[in-house]
Structures are given as structure tokens and as C-alpha cells.
Amino acid sequence: MSWTKKIVGGFTYLAFLSISVAILLEVIFRILPTSDSTKSKKVNIDYPIIRFEENRDITKQIGFNFKHINVKHINNYGYASDKDFKKKELQTKPIIAVIGDSYVEAMQVKNKDAFHAILDKGLLSHDVYPIGISGSPLSQYIAFSRYAAEQFSPELYVFLIIENDFDESFKKVKNAPGFHYFNETEELTLVEYDPSIIKKILRKSAFVRYLYLDLQIKSQINRLFKNEHISKEIQTNTNMNFLELGQEAIDKFLHNIKDLTGTSKVIILLDGDRTSIYNGEVIRNMNKPANILYEELKKLSISIQNLDIVDLHNFFLNDWVENGKKFNYDYDYHWNEYGHAVVAQILLEKIKNGKLSIVQN
């Protein structure tokens, strides 16, 4: 047998083996409860708001070992909720729009256990519409609020702000497709999103979804090659840049919020510094730049009418002291069912009381 035939035969065998392994892996991961793609839809000037493919149930695995499996329903507007949304001309109750990122999307818990669903159940006088997509920053919250105003005319807007929502409001920091970012003025710039044919095909592969969604191989590779030995000087400069961009994002965010407060009420929820609480600290750790921005946002919001800021930190702290139950999973920092229930009760009492003032607890 000539060397040419041997080489061709070797490559043929390797190709056969690779295809066989790929088919076997695909079969195995189709049997396992691998996460489904949320199937984000096209986002452009004609369809400017990011959302998922509507009216479907999806499986979401939290982690990589199939110990935390959840099934989420995506409603008629493409958001994670068991409640279908109605346009303003079809509504029978006033609307509360809950706007945020992955904490509102709440893939970690069943739809009925998310804080906005508990709020909806406890407020028979209103319908609560959650509009949340993982990765959304403050700038996207403004885009969501304008969309909600156009579609639903909410009586109340509830914004949930997490520590990474500030600097990611600018394209130079994030620039993820499908989202809006602040430009030099208070206006928004959209980065359009159109999933390629290859991406649509890969979404259908259970093994690829496991690698990308569950194992998060892209993040793992980034961590592997990232230099973790960052000098104090570089870290200080990074924190300063975070604070500068965060301050600018707060200014632009609140400037836009004022447009809402002329006709509607607004509540802004600030996530608590849960790590500090678990470590036995009483106040937010002010060595964390995000906590500085939380305080700045509270200070700048005091003069805005019809705006109420609810800082969850002390609520979490008091509950932790009394009950000693964590508000998030040990393997995932998003709120667990208990955390959502605590936040829902805080909001429920706040809304039923009907008072609008800065809440420090």
C-alpha cells in the first residue's frame, strides 16, 4: 500500500471516528436536560427591543452538573412570565412594569417564584409585567421603559439595579448586540442583532448548547488566558474608570427617569451587598466601587418627585440576622426562591402603603 493511500485511509478513519463521536455526544446530550436556547430575536431599527422567541417553554440548567434544572415559559411578548401581556387598549387593570436584567428574567427560579410574579399574585388590583433580559444595563432599562410606555402605559415602573449595570451602559465597555447604550447626550444608540444562519443551526445542537450555555466554555477559556496577577495600580485605574463611567451612567439614567415621573410613579430597587452581610458586616463595603455608585444614585434621586429608591441592603441584613437564610445559591449569586420572596414582600408592602419617599429602612 502506498503512503498516499495510507494517509488518505488515516484521515478517512479519523473523520469517521470524529463524526461517530459527535453523533454519540449529540444523542447523549439530547437525552440529558441540557439548556434550551432562549432564541433572542432580531433587533434592528424596525424591531428595536430585545426579546425571545414567543410562546414556548424552555429548559434551563444552572451550572454544568444537571442538579438545578428549571423550566421557564416565555410569554406572548417574548419575556419570561406565565402571564401574557395585553396592549393598553385591551387592559382591564393598571399595569406595573418591572424592568431589569437577569434578576428579572430569573432563569434560576420557576416563573411563579420570581418576585414580580409573587407581587402580581398579591396585587389583585394590578397586572405586573416583567421585562427583563440577561445582560441589560441602565441604558437598556431606559429603552425598555420607553417600550413599556408605548405598549402598556404603566402606572408604576419598578427598576431593579445590579452592580454591573453602570459602566456597561456604554458601548466602549460592553457593545453586546441587541442592546441600547448611552451616547454623548442622554439619548440611546442601538447595536443591532441578527443571528447568523450558522448560529441558528448551532442552537439546535444539544451538545453545543451544553458547552456554550451550561459549561460556559467561552468564559472558562477567557479566565484561563486572563492574567490574574493584576497590579494594584492597574486595579486602581480600573476602579476609577468604573466610577467615572458609573457616575455618567447615573446622570443619564436619572435624566431619562424624570420623563417617566411626570405621568407615572417609579420605584428603583438597589440590590444588597449580600457578600458583606454573610461576612457579618453591617453596612455596604465601600471598598467596592459599585457600592459607592449605589450611594451616589440615592443621593441624586432625592429631589425627583414620584421617585422612590428602595435600598434592599438593610432589608436583607435584618432578615439575615433574624432568619439566617441566604438569598442566593451557593453556586449562583442570583437570588434564590427565598431571596425573590423577601423582595416581593418588601415591594408589596411598599406599594400597598402608597408612600413615595427615599427608603433607608
Description:
With 361 residues, the chain is an alpha/beta fold. The chain folds into two domains: 1-31; 34-195 and 227-353, Rossmann fold (3-Layer(aba) Sandwich). The chain contains twelve helices and nine strands. The chain has helices at 3-31, 102-105, 115-122, 138-152, 197-202, 206-214, 217-225, 232-261, 274-278, 289-301, 312-323, 337-353, and strands at 56-61, 69-74, 95-100, 127-132, 156-161, 180-182, 188-190, 265-270, 307-311. The strands form three sheets. It has a five-stranded parallel beta sheet, with helices on both faces. It has a two-stranded antiparallel ribbon with strand order 1-2. A hairpin with a 7-residue loop joins strand 1 and strand 2. Helix 4 (138-152) runs parallel beside helix 8 (232-261) and helix 8 (232-261) runs parallel beside helix 10. The chain is globular, with a radius of gyration of 23 Å.
Low-confidence regions: 228-235, 356-361
Strand arrangement, major sheet: 4-3-5-8-9
Total of helices: 12
Strand content: 5-15%
CATH superfamily of the largest domain: SGNH hydrolase
Helical percent range?
40-55%
Compute the average pLDDT.
89
Largest sheet composition: 5 strands, parallel
Distance between the termini: 84 Å
Q: How many independent structural domains?
A: 2
Total count of strands: 9
**Structural class computed from helices and strand pairing:** alpha/beta
The H/E string reads HEEEHHEHEEEHHHHEHHEHH
Radius of gyration: 23 Å
Write down the CATH class of the largest domain. Answer: Alpha Beta
- Described by the principal axes of the CA atoms, the overall outline is globular
Identify the CATH architecture of the largest domain.
3-Layer(aba) Sandwich
> What's the CATH topology name of the largest domain?
Rossmann fold
